[in-house]
Amino acid sequence: MKSIFILIYIFPFVQNQLIWQLVHKGDGNSPSPRRDCGIGFIQSLKKIVLFGGRGGDGILGDTWIYHTTSKTWREIKTSGPSRRFSFVSGVFGQLYCLTTGEGTSKVVFNDVWCFDLSTEIWTKQTPINEPPSGRYGSVGGISNNQLYLSHGFDKGRRFADTLYFDLISNQWVKLHKDGHSYSPNYPHARCLSGGCILESQLFIYGGCLKGGGAGGPCPAGDSWTFNINDREWTKLPGCASPRTYPAMAPLSSETVILFGGDESSNQVLIGSDSPTDQVAVYDVGRKEWNLRKVVGSIPDRRIGPALTHSGNGVYMFGGSSSNNNLYFLSGNYISSPISESCNQPFFNLIALHGIFMFIGWGVCLQAGAFIARYFRHKDPLWFKIHRILQIVGLLTATAGFICGILSAGLHAFPHGIIGFLVHLIGLQQFTAFCRPHKSVDSKTPKKRVIWENFHRWLGRVCLLFALINCALGLFLALAAKGLYIAFLFYFATVITAYVIAEVRLRWTNKSQVTNSNKEQ
């Protein structure tokens, strides 16, 4: 009797857990397996629209409708948008609209198309003003009559702007201009992120920040929300693993989910793929992420799936999977057990690059220069310590330089350019092996004077710009705010130490000259 009571008590909670259902097993009458496609659920018609993507047949441009009542797919034979993948799409009434994407021959689009389910016809929208730059790998969706677009990239550039296309007035409106990658106030330029819209908030998660005139983690693990009304970005707490090509969708009026994606790259040194029976859930009211365990017909791991909200759950199709099944996720995440804690161990080449550079340029080389300037009265000990610190510092910085190239490539962006020049100038230390010797008498040779000034002033310039570049690197690497504060405190401490030591040295030298004059 007791066991029956327990079963009756816990059954409603178990029943309401997050659960994956296989609602349609793919067959010959279904869309072919694909990734990076777009889907949208038309609530009033109980139908799903699917378009494009890429798969074994290359880049696709076919249109399909899934009838949720009869559970059948039907291909729509009609002309429409060019073949494309990684585009932004959403639903407005009985319209499924899309923009951007990459097509054949690596062409990128900035056009807008809408598919009317009542007529089953695609119509190209004609903007009355200049559209944004063509791009793909962006995030966005539709809120009311506005098709939002944010971030993405083209052949040579990453974007960080946010704008929308008004589906009634047919005009583009910019909400947030393209910025730089050294501000903590908004998500840096990126592509291949996950994103969705819930009410008046646009969400973005992860993606790739390196390349295209920018640098940063790839994959990234930061998440943000853009308030459409206030036009302000807000950074969300971290939780799920860094990834590219994930998908996001509203699960309810208060939650969004993050699913799938690629959690590996040549940058990742320590990290593991998330369990297949896990989804990340963001609760808007609680303002927190959770990693929750899902039951049911668990889809296999996949990159680039497509999600769409249906009113009481989320439909999922595609991704880097060999099947073309259609899944449905429903339930209350609160009733589901926690899969694992947030912020699992993760370490990448960018972090290793930063550690090496801080030890090299931020500690060893700074200390070596400090000793050479302010401890010459400890001759010859000062020189021995100075030489050891400079050699160790330069070797460590070189290791960091190599890590930087391996993680970000040879792309031109401010942090990388400054780092390259600083490291190149820093190599002037090796001229010490062929420096002119000091004279045996009291007179210093002119060549020696020139070399000492060259060595001293170039070194000082390098050390100053190295500290500045370390600070820029922290912003670029999306480091935690506490790390910014700690480094700025360290920066201020180093500068203060130099100022105090310089004042003390000059005061000592002045006193010695005064005493010498008195003795004469």
From TrEMBL:
Cell compartment(s), UniProt: Membrane
Endpoints of the signal sequence: 1-16
UniProt entry keywords in alphabetical sequence: Electron transport, Kelch repeat, Membrane, Repeat, Signal, Transmembrane, Transmembrane helix, Transport
InterPro entries registered for this protein in UniProt: Cyt_b561/ferric_Rdtase_TM, Gal_Oxase/kelch_b-propeller, Kelch-typ_b-propeller
An annotated GO cellular component: membrane
Pfam families per UniProt: Kelch_KLHDC2_KLHL20_DRC7
SMART domains linked: B561
Chief place of localization: membrane
Record-annotated membrane-spanning stretches: 346-375, 387-410, 416-436, 457-477, 483-501
Positions of the Cytochrome b561 domain: 314-511
Protein name according to UniProt: Cytochrome b561 domain-containing protein
Organism of provenance: Dimorphilus gyrociliatus
UniProt lineage: Eukaryota, Metazoa, Spiralia, Lophotrochozoa, Annelida
